Amino acid sequence: MPDLLDLQAAQFRNGGRGQVVGGYHQFDCWGLVMAVFDRFGVAVPDFARSCWDAEGNHAVYRDEAESGRWLKLAAPEAPCLVVMRTHPLAPEACNHFGVYIGGGKMLHMRDEVGVKLDAVNERPWKRFILEYRRWNGNTSR
Q1: At 119, which CATH number?
Q2: Is 109 among the domain residues?
Q3: Which end of the chain is more exposed for a tag (fewer CB within 10 A), N or C?
């Protein structure tokens, strides 16, 4: 597994793609997804959307899922996208994303607490996770 320790100290920033401010990387959840996949040697596309736009992010995810660029997995494998539904006002929207890094764990970014290393099979995440996807495409559109 690649070294992810420095990413675990990152801070939340809407639209963050790894800028360093005050000695800390700044990410939103998709920015962290991009950085973790990069550490595994996989380049995934950037969608440059506000992390608070649950329905807009869901629309982008739906288009990506239907594109064939992300393969749906029966079980997680490292690295793969962890797709979650966490928005109380848009409960059907896939609005939060993390990366499964192995050992039953995922890394994801939360706006109020920063980077979290959480077990995918424990509460509360088990109920929020919709599916796992492996990158299967290129980043050109």
Answers
A1: 3.90.1720.10
A2: yes
A3: C
pTM: 0.92
Could you give the number of structural domains in the chain?
1
Say how many CA atoms lie within 13 Å of 138 toward its Cβ: 2
pLDDT digits (tens, 9 = 90+) for 70-101: 999 999 999 999 999 987 767 788 889 999 99
Other CB atoms within a 10 A radius of the CB of residue 87 amount to 19
Query: Is 140 a member of any domain?
Result: no
Q: Which of 69, 61, 117 is nearest to 87 (CA)?
A: 61
Nearest to 53 by CA among 101, 15, 103, 100: 15
Decide: 57 and 49 in contact? Cβ < 8 Å. Answer: yes
- 130 belongs to a structural domain: yes
CA distances from 6 to 85, 104, 129 (A): 27, 20, 25
Rounded Cα distance between 105 and 117, Å, is 6
Q: In 1-141, which ranges are continuous DSSP H helix?
A: 29-39, 54-67, 125-128
Measured distance CA(138)–CA(69) in Å, rounded: 7
Range of the domain at 83: 5-135
